[in-house]
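Lab meeting prep.
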Amino acid sequence: MIAVGSRERGYTMVALLIGLMIMMVMIAALLPLASAEAQRDKEDELIFRGTQYAEGIRLFRRRYGRYPTTLKEMLDLRPRTLRKLWKDPITDSDDWGIVSAMAGAPLPGQQGGGATKPPGSPGAPLPTPTPVPTPPTGFGSPPTGANPMGPVAGVYSKSKKKGYRTYQGREAYNEWRFSEQTLIQQTTAPTVPGPGVPN
C-alpha cells in the first residue's frame, strides 16, 4: 500500500515538472513577441510626438515669423504653439536631437537646397532671425558651453538603434527627422491603396 502511494506521488511530481517546463517554453516563446510589440508601440509614439513638434514649429513660424530658439519657447510664448513638451519615447529622455535651420535644413519652399521664391512673394519662406548669441537653456537646447544650434527647424531621436520599420526610407531612429519639411513631404506623398481598396 505504501509503495503504491509513493508511486502515485512520483507520477504527480513528474507531471508537475513537465507542466512547468511546457509553461517555461511558452513564456520564452512569447517574450520576444511582447518585446517587439512594445518597441513598435514606442515607434508609433515617436512618430506621433515628432510630428507634434514639427506641427508646433510650423505654427510658431507662421505666427511669429521666425523659428523657435528652443523647444520650450513654443510652450512658454503665448499664445502657445505646442500643447506640452514630450520626451523621446525611444530613449525615455527629454534630450532630443535638434534639426537646426542654420545648419542647412531646407526651408519650406526649398527642395534639396534649391532656389527659393523671392521674399514677400506668395509661398516664400519667412525670414529666419539671427541666432541668439548665448546658448539657450531649457528643454531641447544644447548643453551648457556648447555653441548655439540656431533656430529650431525640427527634432529627431538620438538613439542609433535600428527600428522594426523604416520611416521615410530610413532605418535608424536618429535618422527619422521631424520638421516642417517632413510635414510637407507627408502631404504631397502619393498614398498607396491597401488590398481590396479601389483606386
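Slide two material, second protein:
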Amino acid sequence: MRGSGRTIASVAIITEPQEANIACDGQRLISPTTVNLDKATDHSIIITKTGYKAVNIRLRSGVRPFKGVGASFVENTAAWGWWTLGIGTAAGMIVDAASGSMKDLNTTEIYIQLEPGEGIINMTDGDLLKAQKERQDKTKALNKK
C-alpha cells in the first residue's frame, strides 16, 4: 500500500522576476521556493508582485493513470507478492483509493514569467504543463545552437 506517508508532493515555485509573494494553503512565501502539498487535495496558489499582474493558479488533485493507479498496482504487487496478484494487490489498491494515496498532482514545478501591468491571470495545472513544455522546447532549441 502506498500509505499516507506518500501523499505529500514537493512543488518548486519559480518566478521571473524573483522575489514574488506567494500565498498557498495559508502559507506566505517568497519565490523561488519549494512548498509541500497534499497530493489528495486541490490547491490555490496566488502569486503577486508590485507592478505585475497577479497569477491565480488552481492546482488540481486527481487519479493519474501512471502515477497513481500504476504506482499503486506495482507497489501493492511487490508488497503482496506476484502469487497474490488478485487478492492482495486488489486489497491494497482499494485501501490506496480510499485513503487518497492514488491521487497525485500534475506537476512538481511551477515556473511563472510574470507579466507587467495590472489584473489577474487565472491558470490551471493544464496551463502550467503547456507552459512547462514550451519552456523545455525553447531550452532544447537554445542548447542545439
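Talking points for slide two:
The beta strands are 8-16, 21-24, 27-30, 33-38, 43-48, 54-59, 61-63, 103-105, 109-113, 120-124.
Residues 1-5, 66-89 have pLDDT under 50 and may be disordered.
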